[in-house]
Amino acid sequence: MACGPYQVAFYEFGALYYQTENGGAGIDKDLVDELVRRTGCKLQSGVDSRVRIWNRMETGALDMTVSGIATPEREKFAVFLPYITTRNYVLMQPEIASLVTTQDAFMKDSTLLLGVVKSFRHGKYYDEVVETLRKQGRVVEAADYPSLVRIFQAKRVSAILGLPTSLAPLLGVVKGVSVQQVADWAMTDDVTGSLVLSRQRMAAKDIEAFRLALQAAREDGTLDQILHRHLQPEFARLVRMGQHPVARVATR
To answer: Beta-carbon neighbour count of residue 40 at 10 Å?
Structure first.
């Protein structure tokens, strides 16, 4: 039986997905292309904001998205197939990075603001940090990652949260950004991004086909090749592709 057509939504987020003269590119784009090649499934792709993507997934208006972080609430309406593991880092303004050298110092200075993308989940540790700062009125939310970068460039925030896949493309592009401004506050708080498949809209056989294809790409080293295609070595070492076996999950 035919697989699809299904709708997959990408979102612009550093090396995961970005625009070129020839269209979309990135780790997530290459991953989906590889899974399409292996499954023969037909996909129709588009780009949307993360907020709208999660709303569409929850309301049953979208079949699939990428690099999503599982939560108990989200697992009620979607199946998560993990493929990328890393953790968030803090990128601070250059004039602040030299003065604020610890998380404690940042948290105690009420004048410092943190920028995040609305609806993003950053892992247990940073989600608690964000919530603490939000209660103090010290969080600035952007609709998407490109908007967050613009807010940072305009110095409307003191720091932003980002994965290595999102911070790496800023080096040499955004004025004043260097690795010396990147702080690691949560050395054990890894987050895992997954292929997100709608329980309501996708057939169980097709979900299983994607699981098997992803598992095969993990085992033959294709996922690791995709990673190094888009990240400099100093950032690629902070990311793991296919660390976890893609276990079968209940789809109904």
So the answer is: 11
Cis peptide before 5 (omega within 30 of 0): yes
Q: Which residues are CB-contacts of 157 (< 8 A; sequence separation ≥ 6)?
A: 113, 114, 115, 140, 151
Other CB atoms within 10 Å distance of the CB of residue 189: 17
Q: How far apart are CA 97 and CA 105, in angstroms?
A: 11
112-to-144, 161, 167 alpha-carbon distances in Å: 21, 14, 20
Write out pLDDT tens, residues 94-148.
889 889 989 999 999 999 999 999 878 887 899 999 999 999 999 999 988 889 9
Instruction: Please give the Cα distance from 133 to 140 (Å, whole number).
Output: 10
Whole-structure pTM value = 0.79
**Scanning the structure block, which residue is given the tokens 């709303």?**
55
For residue 240 the two structure tokens come to 């793991």
Number of CB atoms found within 10 A of residue 22's CB: 6
